[in-house]
Amino acid sequence: TENCPCFYTPGNHELYVSDRKELYATLRNYGMTILDGKGMPFTTPAGQYLWISGISISEQLDQLSQPPAEIFHILIYHYPEKAKACAGRFDLRLAGHEHGGIFRTKRINGLIGHSGLLPKFAGGYYDLEKGCMIVSRGLSKTCAGLPRLGNPPELVTIKLKPQQAQKEAGQ
User: Fold this and answer.
1) Cβ of 37: how many Cβ atoms within 10 Å?
2) How far apart are CA 138 and CA 140, in angstroms?
3) Any bridge partners for residue 104, and if so which?
4) Which tens digit of pLDDT belongs to each residue from 10-55?
5) Which of 37, 131, 38, 40 is nearest to 89 (CA)?
């Protein structure tokens, strides 16, 4: 984590962990930063200043401190279906939970997910009112105890480019 900082926000599986304090202590020992209902400034290795926040439940949204409007703000929140509750507050939202659904085809991005049939945010990139959201399909080979079909595990990597570089590239 020295060369690649890691941030952690709990999801639904951590609800079943009997001792969350012990889990957090273990993650901190590995150098991870726990973001559960809080945000913090962060400077990238390239010297770009941004703000990163993490919540485990939507009630924590109102508790988050907000950076100045010109600061790029990232939210880690496990539940993509709560996108409306986050509208207009974050430039980039990172989520999981649906994990691509139990079954996918080339035409259907998640047939069945945790939120039911045809989840709106099953996996991938989504343009939203303000900003965007990336939903990871995750690393598990099962979903709700069932094998995932047509939905291979994935590890998402994201490269953030400074706004000035995007303008120069015409993006």
Assistant:
1) 17
2) 6
3) none
4) 887 777 788 889 999 999 999 999 998 899 998 887 788 899 999 8
5) 131
48-to-56, 71, 160, 161 alpha-carbon distances in Å? 26, 10, 10, 9
pTM attached to this predicted model = 0.82
| Spatial separation of the C-alpha atoms in residues 17 and 126, rounded to whole Å | 31
Give one word for 76, left, alpha or beta, with left for phi > 0 and alpha for psi -120 to 50.
beta
| Residue burial 136-169, b: 16+ Cβ < 10 Å; e: rest | bbbeeeebeeeebeebeeeeeeeeeeeeeeeeee
Can you read off the two tokens belonging to residue 145? 């105890």
CA dihedral of 23, 34, 128, 107, whole degrees rounded to 10: -30
Total residues found in the chain within this entry:
171
